[in-house]
Amino acid sequence: MTSLALAAALVAAGAGAAELPRMAQKDGRHALLVDGAPFTMLAAQAHNSSNYVAALPKVWAAVADANANTLEIPVAWEQVEPTEGKFDFSYVDTLVAQARERNVRLVLLWFGTWKNTGPSYVPEWVKFNNARFPRMVDEGGKPIYCLSPHGTETLKADRKAFVELMKHLKKIDGDKHTVIMVQVQNEVGTYGWARDYGAAAQAAFNQPVPAEVLKLQKAPVPGAARGTWKQVYGDYAEQYFHTWAIASYIEEIAKAGRAVYDLPMFVNNALRDAVEPLAPWKKNFASGGPTYDVIGIYKAAAPHIDVAGPDIYEPASNKVTATLDKFKRPDNALFVPEIGNAAGYARYAYAVLGRGAIGFAPFGIDYADYSNFPLGAKATDRTMVEPFGTVFGVFRPMMRQWAQWAYDGRTHGVAEGDDRAPQSFTMRGWKATVSFREWQFGEAKYFSHIQDRPAGTETPNGGVAVAQIGDNEFIVVGQRARIKFEGAGANDGKPSMYARVEEGQFDYKGRWVMERNWNGDQTDYGLNFMARPTVLRVKLGTY
Ligand code: DGJ
After folding, report:
1. How far apart are CA 92 and CA 203, in angstroms?
2. What are the pLDDT digits (tens) for 207-242?
3. What share of residues in the chain are helix, strand, coil (percent, to 5)?
4. Best residue for ligand 1 mutational test, from 187, 268, 380 (most atoms within 8 Å of Cβ)
5. Distance from CA of residue 21 to its chain's centroid?
């Protein structure tokens, strides 16, 4: 059976509906299995304060316009346990029921001890009781804004609330799996301080580095093979130690939660610069978070966390690409749990899904009348959602097949770079070159007297993703770009031509439905995609 037919059969059979969502891995690639088959989260994240029943209508309206199959939305510790020991999950009940009505899956974001590093979402009875729930202290012993990862009572209390949430989810959703993943805390770490300098932290800092950390986290500048954090990691020791402390705290929470209800779990990261050369922390990012350089520490200290995902709010294409390539690892599935909702970010869906990611989620897809500019869009209405909605709209019907192809290592993708230059990638037997700002007819070299460029290409917004579904057969999805194929590998140097270029789409049963066959002007100068994302099924041949 071809992988296309297999994926279609799985979709049709609704195979594995009883199976819990889980991560799967083969040959260094990853899949999120939902109801027993790979699933791509074409997701939208709601605004931070939309985690209330009254706010949901404005969330669902935007999720629908985005064509998202998954909503990421917070569940705050302060809202489920406003009084210690008294739990209220009525919001979660409504959320899950409404998601089911809309055929949308949920990723819940546990806003607990740390939200963007601070304790703003802990209940009031935690916020100000610093004797029981200690804050980190600076080198002079003064408390700072962050709760300490060495606070044993804080850990106990957060863990208890999280376990109650997971028990509740199991009760209301254990058979349906509307909730498919849970994020534990949000953008952890500390701004301005490398670590906690309190007594418990100090004692731990002088202990030997645990063996599993030594195994998975190499020192950037080789130090002692074993010993204290300082001896092994030198100038990186404080950041690495704080990372280990936070990851270990998260592990306790995730482990306890999964013991009652075993959903896949992840953490998200406020990034450090992925392009500048690696150097010791100098207050330039949140120390202790799962930045690309310390994913090994998270893997060692938090085995119940499946994925560390980048939150992308820096639009420069070289930084986005470098970030994706650093977070995609044999031991870490690529998942972009947040990306800015400005139009220019939509094209990165092609680069992310082409790299075989398990999900991609613009942040602030919600009509709550709040703009995240300059991190995201100025607009707060449908015009903000539309660039994502059009891309998700073409991927959504074939989402199951795409996830399977990604898992099988058949997918590739590029987003237009800020330099607007062509980009190439090689597949089995074929090389593809994607170019941007081309007119549809002819080659630029024939028309050197034409200086202007197609309307709508003033800023970069093109992208193409390709799945190689057979030796000479491809599913190509794109917008505002031109793609050309030439023989490579076994076909290197051989002349080739299109056998078929069908425009169409997959139906919900996973069957290809052809609308028309492109030929003549539509194929003579490569395959040209306009503003509307389009799906092509392309067959090539050599002679
Ligand atoms: C990243 C955080 O994870 C989100 O919760 C939100 O605060 C955005 N930054 C900013 O819009």
Report:
1. 40
2. 999 999 999 999 999 999 999 999 999 999 999 999
3. 35, 30, 40
4. 187
5. 17
